[in-house]
Amino acid sequence: MRIVVDFDLCESNAVCMQIAPDIFEVRDDDFLYILNETPGEADRSRVEECVQRCPKQAISIAED
Amino acid sequence: MTSIPRAVTIVGASLAGFNAAEALRRDGFEGPVTLIGAEDHPPYDRPPLSKQVLAGDWEPDRAALTDTEELADDGIEARFGLRATGLDLNARELSLHTGETVAFDGLVIATGARCRTMPGTDGLSGLHVLRSLDDCLALRADLEAGPQRVVVVGAGFIGAEVAATARGRGLEVTVVEALPTPLGRVLGDEMGSVCAEVHRDHGVDLRTGVGVDRIEGDHRVERVVLSDGATVDADVVVVGIGVIPNTEWLEGSGVQIDDGVICDASCLVADRVTAAGDVARWPNQLFGETMRVEHWDNAAAQGAHAARRLLDEATGPFAPVPWFWSDQYDRKIQLAGRVRPDDEVRVVNGSVAERRFAAIYGRGGRITGVLGFNRPRHVMRYRALIEQGATFDEALAAEF
Ligand SMILES: Cc1cc2nc3c(=O)[nH]c(=O)nc-3n(C[C@H](O)[C@H](O)[C@H](O)COP(=O)(O)OP(=O)(O)OC[C@H]3O[C@@H](n4cnc5c(N)ncnc54)[C@H](O)[C@@H]3O)c2cc1C
Ligand code: SF4
Fold first, then answer.
1. Nearest CB to B376: which of A14, A52, A53?
2. Residue B175 needs a FRET pair 20 to 30 A away by CA distance; which of A52, B166, B203, B361 works?
3. Which domains can be identified in chain B, with CATH numbers?
4. How far apart are CA B270 and CA B388, in angstroms?
5. Is B245 a pocket residue for ligand 1 (Cβ < 6 Å)?
6. Residue A30 pLDDT
7. Residue B254: which residues within 8 A CB-CB, separation 6 or more?
8. Mean pLDDT of B353-368
9. CATH number, domain at A9?
10. Would you place residue A52 in the very low, low, confident or very high pLDDT band (cuts 50, 70, 90)?
């Protein structure tokens, strides 16, 4: 599982960071940073929640 | 006698209804799912309607949440352009505006809200509200025609965004707000004044503490007459004075209505009936308060919760910290929590003068909310503290 964020869509509102702060972080420069692009299967449901809850539908999961 | 439904019908095919349908499938529900909606369009996102779509930066299809093909793939029967007009809980039947009756087993009520309008203004062209994609495209066409002046009635979040988008198009804008400060009843006067300054910085003619007496014109709007007797010439008027939940179709059904559909803490309305989104009023146990929330995040999360509640009686209470964002000019304004205008307010990060700051709200020794101007990270951190029930002092001492 690899996390893909469409940074053209992302508006840095940090919803994903609230669900998974160990994976997503919005820093003081207002940009989103992916701390762990390839989290393990144990994190799948949290990442899926991020995909679902992102108001901009900016996050997707690539299976490669 | 509550039991798990064999089939689920969802009335209202927007954010809450769509999320309910998706959640049913995600949770492995295999029975029939039917999504009935009054609009002709498949579910779409409303926030871009006052922002990117209205600005002309996005074509409407970018606001789509799904399409009929995707719904079909998920085994969701989509029935659009159909308005529910009645509910019979005993017979478990819906009536539609076409005269058809539809049997249901499980039901999610997700009929949202519609704009409040000004009385006596029917039939004037150039007069707009903004809720639906059709509203947005009509307003967009009027803005593209290059009006001399746009008057926005109401400086709430929608009014503020419309004003910002119209200014972004280089149009002259007057905003009329009855309260002494925009959003004063939500944010309090101190932060409301910051919102006022943001408008004025961007060249908006903001009139506060004055109401609209009437809107005049012959076929087309020509001027707005204010309660202090002043008149403002306008060829486009946008009325943004709040919304009314769509509950008329439930009258006489036995479902309890009081400015929204009354639910229990888990979103249950009646046996195998739940409600979600802008139409739902429920006791949020985190705040010990009954609320109806008109935000994107709430409709999405509550839609999913209401679906889950139908499938599993053990589904707990729906008790989130309400949160929303509003994009105005180059600012991202976010508010989380449940604030009152007389709460104590403290700026905890950044600078109000630069319009980049986070401020927290407190009442009774607890943190009740956080407001951010271009501070999404801080809003989310303080939102977590609100969820944990932190004291105001703990929140003031926190460093993010
Ligand atoms: C222009 C605009 C901008 C916004 N911007 C933001 C923002 O920046 N941030 C934010 O947090 N929130 C924003 N919101 C609010 C957010 O979009 C709403 O909270 C959300 O749309 C609520 O979703 P809902 O599904 O509960 O209701 P709605 O979106 O109101 O949908 C209800 C649906 O039910 C249908 N319906 C109604 N009655 C019937 C009936 N009897 N039978 C069948 N169908 C029926 C309606 O036609 C509609 O399609 C914005 C809203 C608007 C209008
Ligand atoms: S939730 Fe979506 S829009 Fe918000 S920061 Fe994460 S990726 Fe960006």
1. A14
2. B361
3. 8-114+243-311 (3.50.50.60), 117-239 (3.50.50.60), 330-397 (3.30.390.30)
4. 31
5. no
6. 82
7. B89, B270
8. 96
9. 3.30.70.20
10. confident
